[in-house]
Design brief:
single chain, 170 residues, alpha/beta, Rossmann fold, six-stranded mixed sheet, 19% strand
């Protein structure tokens, strides 16, 4: 069951996962999205920051995005026996823009734009980067870059704090 949370809720969600799986080497951070759409850049921005923070297993960065075309192959290539936390951007109600939809279970990438992609993650967090409209691609393309960057930074900071890595902002 998905739950909408703010920054503190995301930090709590990730801290709960870290309590169950405290070794960062046992975690795969799967950051889904593309660098070719402002809203959908949440995943690659987050992945780039996580890699910079020293996470050992990050898939999906600005240099090597895990977009809709690559996702099936990336899923097949993920290391076995590791806990996968999938991150993606999503659309939601106007009141929920800036919040995170978290779940103990997978997310379904590109659902808002009508694509059928495989579900991803043992745990998942989706950043609500824009309001759902009749034109979902337009909504993603026109999401404010400042919001998307702030949400990626927030998620990276929450992950660093949960696993006590030194990469988070202080």
């Amino acid at each position: 069951m998905r739950k909408l949370v703010d920054e503190a809720g995301l930090a709590k969600f990730l801290a709960e996962i870290a309590a169950e799986q405290p070794d960062p080497d046992r975690i795969v951070m799967l950051c889904i999205g593309t660098d070719r759409s402002t809203g959908d850049a949440f995943g690659p921005l987050l992945g780039t920051r996580l890699l910079r923070d020293g996470w050992p297993h990050v898939y999906g960065t600005l240099r090597d995005p895990c977009d809709a075309e690559r996702l099936p192959d990336v899923l097949k290539a993920l290391p076995a026996g590791k806990t996968v936390i999938a991150f993606d951007a999503c659309l939601g109600s106007p009141a929920n823009v800036g919040r995170f939809s978290v779940a103990r279970g997978p997310l379904v990438p590109a659902e808002a734009v009508g694509r059928r992609l495989p579900a991803a993650g043992h745990f998942s967090a989706a950043a609500v980067v824009a309001a759902r409209t009749a034109k979902p691609y337009h909504a993603l393309m026109t999401a404010p870059l400042s919001l998307v960057v702030d949400m990626a930074e927030c998620a990276a900071d929450a992950a660093a704090a949960a696993w006590k890595l030194t990469g988070g902002r202080t």
